[in-house]
Amino acid sequence: MEETQPADTPSTETASRPLHGDSVHERLREEIRSGALPPGARLTETELAARLAVSRTPVREAIRRLEAEGLVDHQPRLGAVVRSMDYPEIMELYEMRTVLEGTAARLAARAASPMELEELRAINADMAAAGASAALARLNRQFHARLLDAARNRFLVRSMASVEAALLILGPSAMERPDRAAEAVEEHRAVLEAMAARDGAAAEAAMRAHMERAQLTRLRILRQEGGA
Question: Which ranges carry the HTH gntR-type domain (predicted)?
Fold first, then answer.
């Protein structure tokens, strides 16, 4: 799970490779995540089919799936467009993310195995060593995904999937900002220390603080871009 959106821009090799089936859906999701398809961008079947070197059928199905995930809207005279989120929606999204991530940390403090804790430490160490690289966003998503797995709650996983999809709309990850990345590593350490002590309340509090700082960073980015 990402700090938000989070994002890895598709490589030149991947971007030029012909796609089929589910991979069209994954490509479009990644382009929304990276900002290549920003909020308000039109998704035209013929143009996308030509660019991705596929027929219109998988493109049409991918757009339907994106609509079901809440990433795409159909607007009069425009057709399918990438969804935009207003300020109240962004606040609601982060409020829910804070609740879910905090709950995951509390449950993981009780349920995580020593091996899972060590894996989380290793991922966070990789983040600290990554510097200002494109790997930061991927490692951040990996950290949050592994922590969620360690919580051992399938309903929580399903709820987080909905939040993660909505986060894609916000575009590239705040991890692209070196100052935020360094802060996130320290915030992760605080969560991990509480988890290692099996202190669920402290782990939840540390994760909530982490999410609140992530929210503030995202709002600053959106204001600078004129989006909130």
Answer: 18-85
